[in-house]
Each structure stands twice: as C-alpha cells, then as structure tokens.
Amino acid sequence: MSEMRLYDAAGNRLYLNAEERAAFLAAARRQSARDRTLCETLHYTGCRASELLEITPARVDLSGGTVTLRSLKKRKDAKGSPRIVYRAVPVPPEYLDTLNTAHGLREAAKSRKKANAPIWPIGRVRLWQIVKRIMIEAGIPDAPHRSPKGLRHGFGINATVNGIPLHMVQKWMGHAQLSTTAIYADAVGREEQDIAARMWG
C-alpha cells in the first residue's frame, strides 16, 4: 500500500489551499446545476471521485444534514472477510437546499428506483473533465493539485486548520487509520504560514 502524501517528489503541493478552494467554489456556482452540485459535493464532503458517483438520493439526509458515502477502499473484518463501510458527513444546509432543488431529492425519495439511482450518472473520466474545466476557470494553476484528489486533500487541510479533531476528520474522510489522517496536521504549519503571509501582506 502506497503512503499518502501532500507533496510530490519535487515538493509541489498536492492539495488546494483556502484561496483556491474558495475560487473553485465560486466558479462552480456559475455552472449548470449538475456541474455545480457535483463540485460542491466534492468540496463539502471531501469524498473520493468514485465515492461521489455512487451517491443516491437515499443517501442524502436532508433533515439530518448529512451525505452518506460508501468507502470504496477495501476493508476486512476480524476474520479477514471483506466488509462494507459507510460514513455520514455533515454538510451545510444551503448546499443541501441547492442539491435538493437541482435534483428533486425529496420527490425521488418517494420511488425506490429513483431513490437508489446515482444522482450523477456519469463516469470517472467525465467527472474529472468537469472538475478540471472548472478549476481552470477558477484560475487554479496547472500543477499536481489541480485535480479531484487536490480537493479531497484540501478538505482535510481545511478541517484541520479550523480545529476539527483528527478523529472526526478520519471518520469524515473514511480513513482506516488515524495515522493517515495525521498527515493533515503535519501540513497545517505550512498552510498557516500562507494564511499569516496574507494577513501581513
């Protein structure tokens, strides 16, 4: 299993910083309902691209304020058998209102077939193309962090910078080990320097 990193071998950042995340969100809000909600879901849940493609109306709890994701990383129970792991990630009410309005989630919940159909019936390549196009529109430089994975890492950094306990970040991101989540705490120092530089600039 390869070790998760926040910088590549050349020292390039692999996550979107706070300014880039804000620019991406602003650009996403100028898009069609499908593309906007897709990007907002990546932004607010920190999910993997493949996990987003499995989200159905049944997994969005409008009253509870969460989106439930199925972790696609292989996990095993004590006996070594594969097990399915779900996690509920809290999200802002404004985002849920937009998601419901754009995709008719309350109405879809009345039909078992619609409730269990993917909200975004597209493939991973198309998802990647949408995210890349919007990141370009947002002015995010052509660098290793301009990707859906960069958004996921940005979510982890943002949560840590804002004081969310690591065990909660671990739960929301679906990490099996807390040591994986701890890389975000290690990166906070550099992110805080960036924030301080803007404060004094």
TrEMBL record:
Name by which UniProt lists this protein: Site-specific integrase
Pfam families: Phage_integrase
Similarity section: Belongs to the 'phage' integrase family.
The keyword Flavoprotein appears for this protein: no
Alphabetized PROSITE patterns for the sequence: TYR_RECOMBINASE (PS51898)
PANTHER family named among the record's database cross-references: INTEGRASE_RECOMBINASE PROTEIN MJ0367-RELATED, PHAGE INTEGRASE-RELATED
One of the protein's GO biological processes: DNA integration
Presence of keyword Transmembrane helix: no
Single GO MF annotation: DNA binding
The organism of origin for this protein: Palleronia sediminis
Ranges of residues in domain Tyr recombinase: 11-198
Keyword line: DNA integration, DNA recombination, DNA-binding
